[in-house]
Design brief:
6 helices, Rossmann fold, 7 strands, globular, 34% helix, 7-stranded mixed β-sheet, alpha/beta, 201 residues
């Protein structure tokens, strides 16, 4: 798909619903969606697909024109059943897996490290597992936001369902902005170019 295609991107940030989970590591996808919506001046609203959704323009094209169209979405289902809302949104907006970008927390990356990938396995991530299962495909793009491994013998599930500690909040804010930058570059430049820029020191 050409990076200058007029087809919109469906950008989905994974997380769990409600204030109890809002600041958890597992909700980093939701946090990035909030940053993107704020940048675009877009208001998230409830969608029948069990998600909060906003249609927006991402970034700024050369010459100062508004960037490409995107649907920003934060499922309101629990993480382990994210696939239903994602499929419903993809069907509603007519978006194929080639224009789907999922943002999620990643235990296998150091905290605050970002990586773009397309396809591959789910690495034990229940949200990705649900999406791949319901879509019957794994070839969608992912933005992996590192949260690191739990200290000592802490259970990984308990770790991702705990809040980002206060000492990391400032760095987290920077990470969320960098993640939003990466999403905008995917929309503006195409996945491969954005991936190369993100991964090049």
């Amino acid at each position: 798909m050409s990076p200058v295609s007029s087809d919109p991107w469906l950008v989905v940030g994974l997380g769990n619903p409600g204030p109890r989970y809002a600041r958890n590591r597992h909700n980093i996808g939701h946090m990035v969606i909030d940053v993107l919506a704020g940048r675009a001046g877009a208001r998230m609203s409830a969608h029948k697909a069990r998600a909060h959704v906003a249609e927006a323009r991402l970034g700024m094209a050369p010459g100062g024109a508004p960037g490409p169209r995107a649907i920003l979405a934060a499922p309101t289902s629990f993480m382990n059943v994210s696939g239903g809302p994602v499929k419903a949104l993809a069907n509603y907006y007519g978006v194929g897996t080639d224009r789907l970008l999922v943002i999620h927390d990643e235990l296998d990356l150091p905290a605050h490290e970002l990586r773009l990938k397309r396809g591959g396995g789910e690495g034990g991530h229940n949200g990705l597992r649900s999406i791949s299962s319901v879509l019957g495909a794994k070839d969608y793009a992912r933005l992996r936001v590192g949260v690191g491994r739990p200290p000592g013998r802490q259970d990984p599930a308990a770790f991702v369902l705990s809040d980002v500690p206060a000492r990391e909040r400032e760095e987290l804010a920077v990470t969320l902005e960098r993640a939003a930058d990466a999403v905008e570059q995917v929309a503006l430049l195409g996945f491969e170019e954005a991936q190369q820029r993100l991964h090049t020191p």
